[in-house]
Specification:
473 residues; alpha/beta; Rossmann fold; L-fucose Isomerase, Chain A, domain 3; 18 strands; 23% strand; Fuc_isomerase_C; carbohydrate metabolism; L-fucose isomerase activity; Fucose_isomerase_N/cen_sf; isomerase
């Protein structure tokens, strides 16, 4: 089994007047499926309880103790119901373990040809009873896409993989450390956020003055080994285009200091004051370093957009692929369901296969184009799209988010920077929601279809206020 295999606790429910053979078989089946899906099962041995199932309070004590022993590695719990199951046994186990992790409830289907006493499961009914008890206990749980499904069914495999993604999101967001480097640009009230609300939700923000970063970078020289190593890394990451050698040295020096800061504070993500102080005081853009970090699953957002990079991290956890912070930027001709996504640009290389280090023409009009090298140029081709935004609503004292899915298209787009064309059904309705609910002009995109995973993780388990955009049929 791979070292990266995530650990999932397994509760196999049993009830005394249903056939025990179903429990025995279920245990073998789920271990085999976990192996195929690269998951590590944490479950009772057959000599600890009857066939390794959970039925009595004593069984619950043993199973809960096992889960506590592995609490550092368990990301979620699967409740398996090969028969009706004992509702109290399952609920008591979860209550006693007190792990506060996502829980998925599965129930086996009955076969019409096996409805006799020796083979009848009644799991359809048992699942309802289990959920009723968990609701009474105040334990949050997830459901499979079909009320009953056999573990060998591909539908259940997808449900289980999606559940594991939910577990990743929940675990990751409860422990994330975000570096806020520099002050919010004065003209960007839109990226204000509440650090206290984030902390209440387990999200830690580590701050640094931009002068500290630039001061350390200015002490480096082109002959320093670290600068040479980072320059080689940057040249291997993207073609330099017309970027002068002097600018490449500045970009590399900044990259050294940023990476040291991330390592020193064990950060999972960063939000950086990218303009205009950097250009005026250091003579380059930080976009290339941000792109490299995002590509390496350490998402980085510009304009000190802390909740923007939080959104990037959540989508990354859900999909297993990099995210990018973008502007809802332009209409696309007269197509009401399409728009242009843009930044000047710091997107991960996954989104811009024609990547090139360049400058930022718009920013250059005020600070001088020669001071903006380090921005990236590239067009995103057609790919799946999940979009969304997490934000703190300070007047209400809550965290809120909107999410949805669409497509990135190959429609013609003749402009500069990092750019893409998005197609989203009822885009006008979505923009209406964004504007009426005070969301930022920044949104996050991810090349996946993971809105359902995010809705479950952020809404059900994190308890945030979630809006999922979808066209009403």
């Amino acid at each position: 089994m791979s070292e990266t295999a995530l650990s999932i606790g397994v509760i196999i429910g049993n009830r005394d007047f249903f056939p025990d053979s179903l429990v025995e078989k279920a245990r073998i089946e789920i271990i085999d499926i976990f192996t195929k899906l690269n998951l590590k099962p944490i479950l009772l041995d057959t000599n600890e309880t009857k066939l390794g199932g959970v039925e009595t309070y004593q069984d619950s004590l043993k199973c809960a103790e096992l889960f506590k022993k592995h609490s550092g590695e368990l990301v979620g719990i699967l409740v398996l119901l090969p028969n009706f199951g004992d509702e109290r046994g399952v609920a008591d186990t979860l209550k006693l373990a007190d792990l506060d992790v996502p829980v998925l409830i599965q129930a086996y289907p009955d076969e019409l040809s096996k409805m006799n006493v020796a083979n009848r499961r009644d799991s359809w009914c048992g699942k309802i009873s289990i959920c009723n008890n968990l609701y009474q206990y105040g334990i949050k749980y997830s459901l499979t896409s079909q009320h009953v499904s056999h573990p060998s069914d591909p539908i259940f495999h997808k449900d289980l993989n999606d559940f594991v993604a939910v577990c990743r999101v929940v675990r990751g967001l409860k422990n994330i450390r975000i570096g806020a480097i520099g002050a919010r640009p004065g003209a960007f009230n839109t990226v204000r956020y509440s650090e206290k609300i984030l902390q209440r939700n387990g999200i830690t923000v580590v701050t640094a003055d931009l002068s500290e970063i630039l001061g350390k970078a200015n002490k480096l020289t082109k002959d320093d080994t670290s600068v040479k190593e980072h320059l080689d890394k940057i040249n291997a990451y993207a073609p330099k285009g017309r970027t002068p050698d002097e600018a490449m040295i500045q970009i590399a020096k900044l990259d050294v200091v940023l990476n040291d800061f991330v390592a020193e504070h064990s950060l999972d993500a960063t939000a950086i004051q990218c303009w205009t102080s950097l250009q005026q005081n250091f003579g380059c853009n930080v976009c290339t370093s941000m792109s490299i970090m995002s590509e390496n699953m350490l998402p980085s957002a510009c304009e000190v957009d802390v909740t923007g990079t939080l959104s990037m991290y959540a989508m990354q956890l859900a999909s297993g692929s990099p995210s990018a912070l973008v502007d809802w930027n332009n209409n696309y001709a007269d197509d009401s369901d399409k728009c242009v996504l843009f930044h000047c640009g710091n997107w991960a290389k996954s989104f811009i296969p024609d990547i090139e280090i360049s400058n930022a023409p718009i920013l250059g009009t005020t600070v001088g184009v020669e001071n903006t090298f380090g921005a990236l140029d590239g067009r995103t081709p057609a790919m799946p799209l999940t979009y969304g935004r997490i934000s703190t609503d300070d007047p209400k004292g809550i965290i809120k988010a909107y999410i949805g899915e669409g497509e990135l298209t190959d429609d013609p787009l003749n402009t500069f920077g990092n750019r893409a064309v998005a197609k989203i059904e009822d885009l006008q309705g979505l923009m209406n929601y964004v504007c009426r609910n005070g969301f930022e002009h920044h949104v996050v995109m991810n090349a996946s279809k993971s809105a359902d995973i995010l809705e479950e993780a952020l809404g059900n388990y994190m308890g945030w206020d979630i809006f999922k955009h979808q066209v009403q049929s």
